[in-house]
Inverse folding.
């Protein structure tokens, strides 16, 4: 079974020591300090996300400039020398660690290189994945939203209902709520969800469809479509405004960075 360290890896330094040369007995000093200071462990932190919004295709990670929708390619999702194909969503926790999910597994992602480290396999399809402002990881597919344990991929249902169906993503905001892009039969809508009990409220229609990714920055939501569109969305009424479009890019997911809220 593979194992990965999710949080901090302790590193222990070796203390210095000396060896007397062979020959006459060395002169013993009058006072010898026999108190030994304990060696302090040094924490080595995993690379953390530093930018406000990230988005991705099925194999490539990008940083996004929320002001104008411009993008910068970070890298290809890889595990060792193998490309991780089919990254369906990413999410960043309150410490800045980035996680990514395929249809079958959860990974820790290096936000500086897109290198992926396997954590655990899951039976959940995490098309919509986000951390809440309280640090919990939620994921959704279809009409079902679950809370997921990042150490072992065990999940339990938050709610399942026939009123809404996932279009592509969830995002947790500083107000404590989840914002969810859902299908409405035409364009996508936005629903606000209370993560404590699953209560949901209709926010509004975005005017855009296939919003498979959802991010947040400076009071606004940002939707990322399968058609290569980046859309600024008002979280109060759901109204969407096109920021940029590149039909050669098929966005599969996105995330906000709570470290820079």
């Amino acid at each position: 079974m593979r194992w990965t360290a999710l949080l901090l890896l302790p590193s222990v330094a070796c203390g210095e020591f000396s060896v007397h040369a062979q020959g006459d007995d060395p002169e013993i000093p009058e006072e010898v300090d026999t108190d030994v200071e304990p060696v302090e462990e040094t924490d080595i932190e995993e690379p953390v996300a530093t930018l406000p919004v990230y988005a991705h295709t099925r194999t490539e990670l990008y940083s996004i400039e929320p002001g104008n929708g411009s993008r910068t390619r970070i890298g290809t999702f890889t595990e060792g020398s193998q490309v991780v194909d089919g990254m369906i969503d990413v999410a960043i926790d309150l410490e800045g660690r980035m996680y990514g999910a395929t249809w079958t597994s959860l990974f820790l992602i290096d936000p500086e290189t897109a290198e992926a480290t396997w954590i655990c396999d899951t039976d959940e399809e995490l098309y919509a994945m986000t951390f809440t402002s309280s640090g919990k990881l939620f994921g959704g597919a279809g009409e079902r939203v679950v809370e997921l344990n990042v150490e072992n991929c065990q999940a339990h249902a938050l709610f399942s209902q026939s009123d809404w169906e996932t279009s592509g993503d969830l995002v947790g905001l500083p107000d404590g709520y989840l914002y969810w892009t859902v299908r409405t039969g035409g364009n996508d809508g936005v629903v606000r969800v209370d993560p404590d009990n699953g209560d949901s409220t209709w926010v509004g229609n975005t005017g855009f469809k296939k919003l498979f990714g959802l991010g947040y920055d400076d009071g606004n939501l940002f939707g990322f479509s399968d058609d290569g569109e980046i859309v600024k969305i008002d979280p109060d009424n759901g109204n969407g405004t096109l920021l940029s479009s590149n039909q050669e890019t098929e966005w599969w997911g996105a995330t906000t960075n709570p470290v820079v809220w």
